[in-house]
Amino acid sequence: MTTTGPELRTLSNEEIARHVEAVRRDGWTVVPDAVDLALLDDIEKDLRRLETVLGIVPADNAFEGTRTTRIYNLLAHGPLYARIPVHPNVLPVVEGVLDPGLLISSLSSIAIGPDETPQPIHSDDQLIPLPKPHPPLICNTMWAITDFTDENGATRICPGTHLLDHSPNLLEHYDSVPAEMGRGSVLVWVGSLWHGGGANRTDRRRVGIAMNYCAGFLRQQENQQLGIPLAVLRGFPKRLQELCGLSIYNGLIGHIDKKHPAKAVFGSDVPPSLVWDYARPAD
User: Fold this and answer.
1) Domain coordinates of the chain in residue numbers?
2) Nearest CA among 148, 264, 145, 255 for reference residue 195
3) Contact 244, 233 (CB under 8 A)
4) In this predicted model, what pLDDT tens digit does every residue of 143-175 receive, in sequence order?
5) Tens of pLDDT, residues 116-134
6) Within the chain, how many helices (H) and strands (E) appear?
7) Which DSSP state fits 142?
8) What class is the 11-244 domain?
9) pTM for this one?
């Protein structure tokens, strides 16, 4: 890795390729020391603020967790969170697993509190009605805002299960291993991998950011176009706007009247570059 600042190091192309291969082979990988710790400090502090301002409390179901606080749609809650989806040590790995036409599926925080029980083992693509195994459709990441340990609820994974021909039963127990990692590291996994949040047997919260992506031809888990205020979306850099859905996938999916969606939303003069343009008759 090469250093680009006092804290941040940038993955080399060779390291990116190794992480992509690990996800394809094992279903998951951990990018160690990926994120500037100062950024994590700011995120952790702001999550506490949002929990108070928004009145966030744990859910009443075992999947979200009865001692876990989750804040959804984080991109709507300030410019701090706009730095997460495009992080240079994470996005290139996810693009390698999917492709550069990918979209943001959801961005949320997950703070597992003391005495939380294990989340049911599940796969993130099991609601998609396609036979398994199939090519990657979803690639999700978990940022370690605090250390992730076996004791405090590190994400538990079932390596290799992304290659199976079925999804897990949420009511059954499966053997799993904790994806332990230090603060500032990022877990990356393909959507077919069986996994779940761990039990927290400590007296402190385990805090993570779930930055989730999907293929550009899929519907996003959170509706980014309606969930983010237009004024906020307008202020995003172009790449983040594309990840939110102001883009055209493979020259076709997402256009509006043969125009780029940014034209319809902002009036921007963006050439659409549609696939049909390559089928013009010869002179």
Assistant:
1) 11-244, 250-283
2) 148
3) yes
4) 999 999 999 999 999 999 999 999 999 999 999
5) 999 999 999 999 999 999 9
6) 7, 11
7) E
8) mainly beta
9) 0.93
